[in-house]
Amino acid sequence: MPQVLFRNVSLLDPRWEEARGGHEVLVEDDTIREVSDRPIRAPVARVVDGGKRTLMPGLIDCHVHTMHSEVYVNRLETMPLTLMAAHGAERLKRMLDRGFTTVRDAGGADWGIKSAIEAGLVPGPRLFISGRSIGPTGGHNDRNRRTQTEPVCGCCNAMVFLRSIADGADEVRKAAREQLRQGADQVKLMVSGGVASPYDPLESRQFTVEEMSAGVEEAKAFGRYALAHAYTPEAITRAMTAGVRTIEHGNLVDAPAAALMASKGAYMVPNLVAYVVMKERAASYGMTADMLEKNDHVLQSGYAELELCREAGVKMGYGSDLLGALENEQSREFLIRREVMPAIDVLRSATLVGAEIVRREGRLGIVEPGAYADLLLVDGDPLRDFGCLQDSGAHIHAIMKGGRFHKYAL
User: Fold this and answer.
1) What does the pLDDT read at residue 199?
2) pTM for this predicted structure
């Protein structure tokens, strides 16, 4: 089996409080075989001199939208699926270029694009898919025009391909089963209003507890779990009652809802960067004034969300949720969270906590024997300055995924 030996590196394992110099890491095939603060004997290994750069685990983004190549999502209704897939492939490659070796798609990516990555047909991160997100008529998931009364075919309309409409517990159950049949790693439920949808208020209640419970039950029966798009304390509380495992966004969470999440061991996946960048740039890409007004509302509560969750003991994963051309800001979430959180906690959200969310703890997000060889060699120490993770990976000199170099620029 091929071996790679990293020497002369400062090792940053997120379980530690700081990077440690003088370490060596031996990779064999797709796995880390040895980690030591002494010289490792590996006579047949390819030796990589890190030049005292930081060697760290690959990053994990737990909320991306691979196939959402338009900021104003309704523009996808005139896009064929082939073009959507081509855009998606390029978006995935750019995520890997930025050092994100694992991503969880929160609605839209299917088993086809996941299989293409696994087969080496397109470069991209490890991909955990939700298939089509599931929501009720008139909810955040319903992008039909008000003049449109008949169902639209999903074979030639990229926007429809990304979503599933279900009303009542039985329809939700059937929709969840279909996504699981299609290879979903998790089931996405829309349980409150949203920013990027045209008609639903943020505080609207979408799906009853009975409907949510049906989706959660099917996911668990398949050995999977449910994640929920939710903003308000009421939506979060109802999702917790139904057994949802991760809350996406959650900007308007209050202390009781955060405490409930902590008591149930649920995860929060904030994505403040999405709202910051939409405020800055989304109007130029067609996002409407009504959407931008909702965006301003949730943006005002974003930093309070981080503090409330930290105080309650809710684990937070790293999420970006960037649509269309806004995706180039994916790493900016590090800088935003750093304003109110310790650097090590921010880094852990994109490594240790992310690994727990995708249920690969011990294999992802750490540097130890038995873990996947998903590694970054960075010019700088992220715990001192997250600037070294910015600029679309320009400061990352080597990116290894599964023991193979995606980038090698030493």
Assistant:
1) 79
2) 0.96
